[in-house]
Amino acid sequence: MFLEKLSNLPGVSGDEGAVREAIIEILQGHPQLEWRTDTTGNLLVRKNGSSSPSRRVMLAAHMDEVGLIIVSIEKSGHLKFKSVGGIDSRVLVSKRVRVGREGIPGVIGVKAIHLQKPDERKKPFKEDQLYIDIGAKNKEEAEKHVSIGSYAAFDTECLSFGEGCFRGKAFDDRAGCAVLLELLREKNSLSFDAAFTVQEEVGLRGARVASYTLRPQLALAVEATAAADTPDTKKEQSAAVLGKGPALSFMDRTLIVDRGILQSLIEAGERTQVPFQFRRATAGGTDAGAIALSREGVKAGVVAVPCRYIHSPCSVLKESDLQDTVSLVRAWLEAIA
Amino acid sequence: MEALIKELVETYGPSGEETAVRELIDEKVRGSVDRTFTDNLGNLFALREGPAPRLMFSAHMDEIGVIVTHIDGNGFLRITPIGGVAPHLLVGQRLRFKDGVIGTVYHEKIKGLKELSWPKLYLDIGAASREAAKERVRIGDMACLHQPFVNLGERYLAKAMDDRIGCAVLVEAARRLPPSLPQGVCFLFSVQEEVGLRGATTAAYRLEPDYGFAVDVTSVGDTPEAPLMAVSLGKGPAIKVKDSSVLCHPRVRELMIETAEREKIPYQLEVLERGGTDAGAIHLSREGIPSGAVSIPCRYVHAPSEMVDVSDVRHAVNLVMKLSTRAWPLLDSGNGSR
User: Fold this and answer.
1) Which of A35, A65, A200, A251 could form a disulfide with A170 if both were Cys (CB 3.0 to 4.6 A apart)?
2) Set of chain B residues whose Cβ sits within 8 Å of the Cβ of A282
3) Domain end point (choices A121, A154, A187)
4) What are the residue ranges of helices labelled H in B211-325?
């Protein structure tokens, strides 16, 4: 699958070009596929399988990831930034980033511990106390490579490790993109629209216009969702766990999943014996929330790959969950075709 | 009308699970309109055909509730809210699932009310084990309050007055409309209002009305030490000026006031500081739809027992009727194209 390749690309919300180009390259040469991009940067792919479905189906995965945007360049050559999308600022200190289109290496710095006042040591640093150091000796030097508005993405190489696990950045939602690519490229008879959307992390923006264009009757967002199966979390507070298959949402902040879609996903899983779990949380939102309210309304659901340490420089997922997500979505598409 | 209200408020229907309410309303309203139909999200449209313009009155079918997120080893259920539910108002309450399973809400050990948060609450359905609980309830199942309707004489007390009372007002108004109307009227029974005006968003897009009206409950300021608000129970329906989702169109408001005064219907003006209605979604649909709202004053909104005044309800029906039967002008859209 293409998770590794996609994970390594920078694509902070609003700057998804590199991811989009990579996906288009992967799509090349497949006769069943046609695609276009829209003005917001969404990539809309149509798969024309041999079946002629009774309903227009849209799958959505977002290309963008959380990251940083440069808001000022200091005299010293350090870059001040704001986060794009939801990032816990406590995870930022000492992390490596790549800045701008050229991918200039940088590191997020903060004042050294021996210089911190006693009360500063007690509290985590906030975003505005941090800066990106790109090794420039002054502002002029820095401006040769970076301008205000440049993006910075986490610099984490995707790696397969442990018992069938991957670690890397941007699994939310390159995992979903990888699942869609698998379903688009494999030989099957299915016909559907796949939207690789932009700006999900800042408010489901790409999906809103993509669904307006595609006018689906049924839609599924393929996402990555927070797994908290870690030693410090009570079981009832962990939304999902690794290794038990895709997590099906019943509700989140943006969507109450259509009961018919939820039921058809459950049946697809049971029929094909693909493991699945329920996402035991109602926080967060996905593209499906925007799609559901498009035009006259769309029945929508969410299937998500469980993923630990989401929205951080390095998250962890299990390859079997990725495969099971492909299988479940395929089985669902077959059932509704 | 009391029987209709009782039936509506006692029906199960948290946001996203409005089917039972929809079927009940469809059955009650079908005979009074030209046709009814349902859309993808579950909105029910009840249409009286007529010349332009077209009015749309929207009352939402959904009520607040909870959803099951976890079933533990001893059969206790963990829950999170659907819509604006205060956790302290649920403690000790009975909740009911769609198929009739009933449970009671309680909390873990806490030092005081301040510690009461959703992770501390659980729902006990009397199941002795996880297996027993799973036979009755699944993760993702929804429950709403289990409270009977009570007639207190001049006032009614029930769960889900928000907004089944609006639904009842529309059903009753539809029944009493004359055979001929000066314009088309749609009574919309919307879904998922409590989680973000979602049903009204897609319904307004589909119907393209020329005017939109929410028919919903509003808070009051007539209880002991209540937050300041110039709306009381028993002084007539409120004509909305604003809430946090909409600034009602001034011309619509004027015409509503004019109608109420001409018909001698008592009314109050409503400025609601916090809260939204379907009008918030409708007025932003497509190219913008001039919108207003008829509000039914209601005490204890989103608490297990909500109270409305019988005469307010009766006058609200009359106001909706008179708004439907008066002729509405086609508003100039600014470029003279309409």
Assistant:
1) A65
2) 67, 69, 80
3) A154
4) 250-262, 278-282, 310-325
Chain segment B162-220, per-residue pLDDT in tens: 999 999 999 999 999 999 999 999 999 999 999 999 999 999 999 999 999 999 999 99
Amino acid at site A106: G
Q: Would you say residue B338 has pLDDT above 70?
A: no
CA distance to partner chain A, nearest, from residue B239 (Å): 28
Within a domain: residue B13? Answer: yes
Contact: B70, A297; criterion CB under 8 Å: no
Task: For chain A, report the end-to-end CA distance as a whole number of angstroms.
Answer: 25
Contacts of B118 (CB under 8 A, 6+ apart): B79, B80, B81, B87
Question: In this complex, which of B15, B72, B201 lies closest to A293 when CB atoms are compared?
Answer: B201
In this complex, the residue of A259, A282, A295 whose CB is nearest that of residue B80 is A282
Q: What is the per-residue pLDDT for B333? A: 56
User: In the predicted model, what is the mean pLDDT of chain A?
Assistant: 95
Residue numbers of the domain that contains A205: 3-65+169-336
**Structural domain count, chain A:** 2
| pLDDT, average across residues A146-159 | 96
Q: Check residue B335 and give its pLDDT.
A: 46
Same domain, A301 and A205: yes
Q: Count CA atoms within 13 Å of residue B212 on its CB side.
A: 35
Distance from CA of B49 to the nearest CA of A (A): 20
What is the pTM for the complete model shown? Answer: 0.92
pLDDT of residue A115: 85
Say which DSSP state A266 is in. H
Please give the pLDDT value at position A118.
Answer: 86
